[in-house]
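Exercise 3.2. Students should predict the tertiary structure of the chain below and write it as structure tokens, then compare their answer with the key that follows.

Predict this chain's 3D structure.
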Amino acid sequence: MTKRNGLTGALILIMILFCGTLQVMAGSDIATLKKAAEQGNANAQFTLGGMYANGKGVPKDEKLADAWCQKAAENGNAMAQLRLWAKYAGGQGVPKDDKKAFIWCKKAADQGYPEAQFVMGDIYVKGKGVPPDNKQGFAWYQKAAEHGIAEAQRIIGIMYAKGEGVPRNDVNAYAWSSLAAAQGDEDGTNNKEIIANKFTPEQRRQAQAVVAELQKKIKTRKPAPHN
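Answer key:
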């Protein structure tokens, strides 16, 4: 079974989210945005930080980008909090610090931000800033998986198949792999087929029933919470 490096994927994701925020704000009145940011609007602060980071509508300025992102994170913007995780986890412009990375990621995850929940799973499984803990890792991956993140669904399937952080259960392994496969995750598709080849007809029936139940529970992805 295959399992990608989730932390690396999440680092890339944060940069995509940061640029995506800029696209949404394209054409906005810069003066109005700055005023909102100065008045403490966390979403405006995060967006302004992204603009300074990329030189979109304002002169490029990494120091101002970091300052506004920091303010946004302190004011509860989950994307900004996760961006600070990325900076500390990757040593981007700051000394690498897994403990600080953990703190910022958990703030975003505790708000219910699925991408942060996924990263928390990686943090615990890989012991980044905390002692390795597969049980905690599984719990966070499951939260992300229930919010529809395909990679988390695939990893949950692998953990069930191997008995990592949770009792081994091939039926559940197949079910979660199937959910990932349904979203186009190639590794999930491969894992699903490997597991299915070992099943009896009764196990196949049970597995399909579990898939149907899980599909009812999967939550719709929602935007990152912000002020």
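Discussion points: The longest helix spans residues 6-25. The chain has two domains: 1-126, 133-220.
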